From TrEMBL:
Species assigned in the record: Hibiscus sabdariffa
Keywords, comma-separated and alphabetical: Chromosome, Metal-binding, Methyltransferase, S-adenosyl-L-methionine, Transferase, Zinc
Organism classification: Eukaryota, Viridiplantae, Streptophyta, Embryophyta, Tracheophyta
Protein name per Swiss-Prot or TrEMBL: Histone-lysine N-methyltransferase SUVR3
Disordered, as annotated region: 105-124
Pfam families per UniProt: SET
SMART domains hit by this protein: SET
InterPro entries, sorted: H3K9_Histone-Lys_N-MTase, Post-SET_dom, SET_dom, SET_dom_sf
Length: 358
């Protein structure tokens, strides 16, 4: 005996439930999974389509102050997939970050399943100490200033705060800012790099370099652009990953974003090495391409009073026009003469991308 056909109202309840659950589940899927699901039926295709559109409109999933859209007129990829973190994270908290909600209503989404981190799945907040993905490795010591607001410090005339210190050199700049051990808050003029991204940016696809970060407005020389965020690795782990990445990159279809920063300590005998891997978990700085002429960005190691690990930040090294690509130099050393081809287009291009033994 066949069961009677469902009544119209039952059908409506079913459809409503189906749409609701699909709308909750699909934003957790990777692009490949989303494409597979959307092929199964018209309804799922209709649910998947706005998710793809939403992803292409903001690489930062609302974690930054401004949306950072993808632009691609070359091929079928509407966006690049990775897990977003606005600040450094330590691998113990990122190992469980296998998925991240990325779709409409990202800001109301729950955290990553199975993640013990408070981070990368939640809505926007722009206090760098409380920003999603923030896992400040901090050592609160006596070195912070006692100021509550750093009254004497203004955005363009940063003087007066005892935490302020700038050591310019030909390579990487080093800067000190107020931090966890200071009495002041985020509005303090000596925390310029801690308030998130404040300039309009976009990510554009290039036929030879892949995705690249571009200015979507005029950026003035000296303005803070962004921090290089990702997983903070031990040197052993960085070397292990580098080997894998080199192999994958040699076929030309993989863009690693593992950055090694070395800071020579004042004694001259020691060198602090910081390994930041933004390949799987990172922020929009992972899209900054190399230029042999040094590019338009200066990299500055920012120490915040009381924070154990400095952060790598990018500031405009010249006035950058709207639609201009943002680049910096990945380094000078080229241990592999037959390394990956460089397409920076500068008059002093070496022809290959920098490479070194990590
Ligand atoms: C940190 S990623 C930059 C973003 C990358 N283009 C992407 O599509 O995700 C570094 C990789 O970008 C590519 N790249 C960066 N600068 C380049 C350049 N000047 N010429 C050619 N490829 C470049 C290389 O594949 C490099 O391994």
């Amino acid at each position: 005996m066949s069961s009677p056909p469902p009544k119209k109202s039952q059908e409506r309840v079913f459809n409503h439930g189906f749409f609701q659950s699909a709308g909750l589940i699909l934003p957790w899927l990777t692009p490949q999974e989303l494409a597979n699901v959307s092929l199964t039926c018209k309804t799922l295709h209709q649910i998947a389509h706005p998710i793809t559109l939403h992803r292409s409109l903001d690489a930062s999933r609302s974690f930054e102050n401004l949306p950072i859209p993808f632009h691609n007129t070359l091929d079928q990829y509407p966006y690049s997939y990775f897990i977003y973190t606005a600040s450094q994270i330590i691998p113990s908290s990122s190992s469980s970050l296998n998925r991240q909600f990325w779709g409409p209503n990202s800001t109301q989404s729950p955290a990553i399943p199975g993640s013990s981190s408070s981070g990368a799945g939640m809505g926007c907040a722009h206090d760098s100490m409380n920003r999603p993905g923030a896992s400040w490795v901090s050592l609160v010591d006596e070195s912070g200033c006692e100021c509550e607001k750093c009254e004497k410090v203004s955005e363009d005339n940063v003087i007066g705060c005892p935490c302020m210190e700038l050591e310019g050199d030909e390579g990487m700049g080093i800067m000190s800012e107020c931090g966890p051990s200071c009495g002041c808050r985020l509005e303090c003029g000596n925390r310029l790099s801690q308030r998130g991204i404040r300039v309009k940016l976009k990510i554009v696809r290039d036929v030879r370099k892949g995705w690249g970060l571009y200015a979507a407005q005029l950026i003035q020389r000296g303005q803070f652009v962004c921090e290089y965020s990702g997983e903070l690795l031990t040197t052993k782990e960085a070397r292990r990953r580098q080997q894998i990445y080199d192999e994958l990159a040699s076929n030309g279809h993989f863009s690693p974003a593992l950055l090694v920063v070395r800071e020579h300590l004042p004694s001259g005998n020691a060198c602090l090495r910081i390994n930041i891997d933004a390949t799987r978990v990172g922020n929009i700085a992972r899209f900054i391409n190399h230029s042999c002429d040094g590019g338009s960005l200066s990299s500055v190691l920012v120490r915040s009073s009381g924070a154990l690990v400095p952060r790598l930040c990018f500031f405009a090294s010249k006035d950058i026009k709207e639609d201009e690509e943002l680049t910096f130099s990945y380094g000078e050393i080229r241990v592999r003469p037959t390394g990956l081809k460089c397409f920076c287009g500068s008059s002093c291009c070496f022809g290959t991308l920098p490479s070194e033994h990590t």
